[in-house]
Design brief:
By secondary structure, the protein is α/β, with parallel strands linked by helices. The chain has helices spanning about 60-70, 95-115, 120-130, 145-165, 170-190, and strands at about 1-5, 20-25, 40-45, 70-80, 85-90, 130-135, 140, 190-195, 195-205. The mean pLDDT is about 90.
Length: about 200
């Protein structure tokens, strides 16, 4: 089993990996890092590449994967639909005005910084590159038992995004709104989450 990453910081050292697992560092998922030769893999799993897709088009990623995939092999693409963060309430009567204001701004900034509308079109995109998509996309949302983990993960991404804003004053204002929204979220028992989109395609012979 081979893995490809652009950041080794979260990868265990080789001695910490299971037998038969190798991690390769590449400069970019969108550049041509595939070595020449025959396709190698029966199954390729792609996940969490939204921040690395340029111009709202993951086509170069799909082409790289197709070059490595054997005929009859499968590509599974798992991606959090961060273009559609949503609020989940345990009690519909609990207020969530700060969170709702925050999510409107988050969606606006994501659209400006790194459009992610392509995630909803993954079945069509894989089909354009010669993959037979098994059904359509599947959406999975974690149950509310994972609320704390989901909230921590979502707000961390919001903070990371605020650092990328060109207007630093706007970034500071967004961070202040995040603080009040996170407090409201924890106090009222809400969950801020994004669906996991899963699409499976098969390379025809």
């Amino acid at each position: 089993m081979d893995g490809f990453t652009i950041d080794n910081s979260l990868v265990p050292p080789p001695l910490g990996l299971p037998p038969g697992v190798t991690i390769h560092k590449v400069e970019s998922y969108t550049s041509n890092f595939v070595k020449s030769g025959q396709p190698t893999y029966d199954v390729i799993r792609i996940c969490n590449l939204a921040a690395n897709v340029q111009n709202n088009d993951p086509g170069s990623v799909v082409k790289n994967a197709m070059a490595m995939l054997k005929p009859g092999g499968y590509i599974e693409w798992d991606e959090l639909d961060t273009a559609r963060y949503s609020l989940v309430k345990t009690d519909l009567t609990n207020p969530a005005s700060q969170i709702q204001t925050l999510l409107k701004q988050i969606h606006h900034h994501f659209d400006m910084l790194s459009p992610r509308g392509w995630i909803d079109s993954l079945p069509d995109i894989l089909g354009r590159y010669g993959l037979h998509v098994e059904g359509s996309q599947h959406r999975y949302r974690l149950p509310f038992a994972y609320a704390k983990i989901e909230n921590d993960k979502s707000f961390k991404e919001f903070v990371d995004m605020s650092y990328r804003l060109a207007d630093k004053d706007e970034g500071m204002e967004l961070c202040q709104l995040m603080a009040t929204a996170k407090e409201e979220c924890d106090r009222m028992g809400h969950m801020v989450t994004a669906d996991l989109v899963i699409v499976v395609g098969r390379k025809v012979y």
